[in-house]
Predict the 3D structure of the following.
Amino acid sequence: MTRGTIVALMVLAATNLAVATEVKSQYGGRAAEAGEYHIELVTKADVIDVYLADHNNKGVAAAGHKGLAILVVAGKSHRIVLTPAGGSRLTGKVIGDTQGELKGVVQITQPNGKTVQAHFN
């Protein structure tokens, strides 16, 4: 192979990798990458929903997963326990209103005990 062919193959491989890992919002929330998951954070009044997806943006069953969101709400830090709520969704209740841009981290514990985190700044 020529040097040009090798460079072209490397660029093509990097492009395919970038496309395969693009994090997309599917439920109107904010999405971030966390280990082998894409995590989407959706807020509704006093409820936090977190959706799990794989790197192809295909939903991952939330059954068996646990979650914890540590978010700043109205200037105060809140720890919100997230529990499976069917499909790829985990949900938790917030004391207070979630209006505005939330900042913090969502930690997901997989059924095998491994944890991943998504940061929302």
